[in-house]
Input
Amino acid sequence: MNIEEVREYFLSKPGAVEEQPFNIPVPVFKVGGKMFGLINIHEPDRVSINLKHYKDQNDELREIYKEIQPGYHMNKTHWNTVYLDGSLNDDFVKKLIDTSYEIVFKSLDKKKRQEILSE
Output
């Protein structure tokens, strides 16, 4: 996936918004005010995104896929940096984005989840 396809996929999630809350132009994607992904700019020659994943599965993902590393500037227990310039196929990257979104969406209170789903 190229970065624009990733951006569009982030924004296709219910209630997803793009913000730039930092002092540098890092696109951050949130649902219900909570971040579920971002596009990295720290390595201009490599395209990568940061995503949440289940902490009990992160070590295994990182061992299997060289493109998945502990999250750059993030809590490395919960976040991964996923490089898009390797062998990860589009469906797998979308599944990782889906998982990140679901983890954050499920952490929202019931009222907020219902508001998002009814938009």
About this structure: Residues 90-107 form the longest helix (18 residues). The chain has one domain: 3-111. The two ends are 28 Å apart (CA to CA). The chain has a mean pLDDT of 95.
